Amino acid sequence: MKTIYLDHAATTPVHPVVADTYIKVLESTFGNPSSIHSYGREARKWLDDARKVFALSIKADPSEIIFTSGGTEADNNAIFGTAMAMKQKGNHIITTKIEHHAVLHSCKQLESLGYDVTYLDVDENGQISQQQVKAALTAETILVSIMFGNNEVGSMQPIREIGQLLNEHQAVFHTDAVQAYGIVSIDVRDLGVDLLSVSAHKLNGPKGVGFLYQRKGIETSPRLFGGGQERKRRAGTENIPAIVAFAEAVKIAQQTIDDKKTAYAAYTSILTDVFDEQGVDYEVHVQNAARLPHVVNISFPGTEIESLLVNLDMAGVAVSSGSACSAGSLDPSHVLTAMFGEGSPRLRNSVRFSFGLGLDRTSVKEAAEKTAEIVNRLAK
């Protein structure tokens, strides 16, 4: 049976060119980039060249790129690192209720250590405003962490406006850009962010590698202790094959960013056109606000998410819900709960479709037709 993968917001297939690059470097370059002999210098050259690619992609300086094991570590380094480095200046942190758990759980841990955390509400489009951040700011605020684009519904936050607001405040500004990087253009200088998290596996790179952008002059306390790698900001021998492969994925993403935006808009239209033609009862979330082009979250009234996901999987369509199924129980999505309230039926009937490598209009239409048939059958 042919399967159609529509869950690229969860993870993406590795691009063939990226895989080839990984294997090439894995087989040819084993030196430690901290060694001074020829093997080490060769590894260092790969590392330095990759760092330049990442810096250029967000208009940063290469020295501002810190390699990590992925988005979770980048988020943790940003949040705990800032909280520890700034603890003499205050203990207040501002974030939102729809952040990735790498941010939310970090903030909860800091609360247990005596920090005061404000979790901003979002509207029905999954957005906050600059005014909300301004109202929450105090003289004790040391960190504001607002995600760039949401991984469940795709809503994008007013990052530039928040950056402008914080320009004259002591608070460090962090954004989790894991879902947005490689999909939309990012200029850290223009946005005014101090810290920015990225992960390779969201843009057809390998799992287990990412980076944290840290603006010059921003101090964070290291979370890993050992050697002096990454300018003593993140101990541990760098994963050269993964980093170089990640850089290759970034080059491809940057070259195709406009084409992908056009294609993803077309895929969304194909989904909704088929649903309209087949008489499907549905509602697209985040219609009246900026949204990441590759993520569309749709509610199907009259259905239950467990049955819908199982039937779609059996039909060869791989998607995700806004909920997490664990040990037979359903935990409502914290994102949809924040947007629509605890009693909303949309918590139990919403599906995330997310686009990426390997899709075309024909496959998306086929997936839409299968989804329409299943939704109509289940809704009866």
UniProtKB/TrEMBL annotation:
<dbReference type="Pfam" id="PF00266">
    <property type="entry name" value="Aminotran_5"/>
</dbReference>
<keyword id="KW-0479">Metal-binding</keyword>
<dbReference type="InterPro" id="IPR015421">
    <property type="entry name" value="PyrdxlP-dep_Trfase_major"/>
</dbReference>
<dbReference type="GO" id="GO:0051536">
    <property type="term" value="F:iron-sulfur cluster binding"/>
</dbReference>
<dbReference type="GO" id="GO:0031071">
    <property type="term" value="F:cysteine desulfurase activity"/>
</dbReference>
<dbReference type="InterPro" id="IPR015422">
    <property type="entry name" value="PyrdxlP-dep_Trfase_small"/>
</dbReference>
<dbReference type="InterPro" id="IPR015424">
    <property type="entry name" value="PyrdxlP-dep_Trfase"/>
</dbReference>
<dbReference type="InterPro" id="IPR020578">
    <property type="entry name" value="Aminotrans_V_PyrdxlP_BS"/>
</dbReference>
<keyword id="KW-0808">Transferase</keyword>
<protein>
    <recommendedName>
        <fullName>cysteine desulfurase</fullName>
        <ecNumber>2.8.1.7</ecNumber>
    </recommendedName>
</protein>
<keyword id="KW-0663">Pyridoxal phosphate</keyword>
<feature type="domain" description="Aminotransferase class V">
    <location>
        <begin position="4"/>
        <end position="361"/>
    </location>
</feature>
<comment type="similarity">
    <text>Belongs to the class-V pyridoxal-phosphate-dependent aminotransferase family. NifS/IscS subfamily.</text>
</comment>
<keyword id="KW-0408">Iron</keyword>
<keyword id="KW-0411">Iron-sulfur</keyword>
<dbReference type="GO" id="GO:0046872">
    <property type="term" value="F:metal ion binding"/>
</dbReference>
<dbReference type="InterPro" id="IPR016454">
    <property type="entry name" value="Cysteine_dSase"/>
</dbReference>
<dbReference type="InterPro" id="IPR000192">
    <property type="entry name" value="Aminotrans_V_dom"/>
</dbReference>
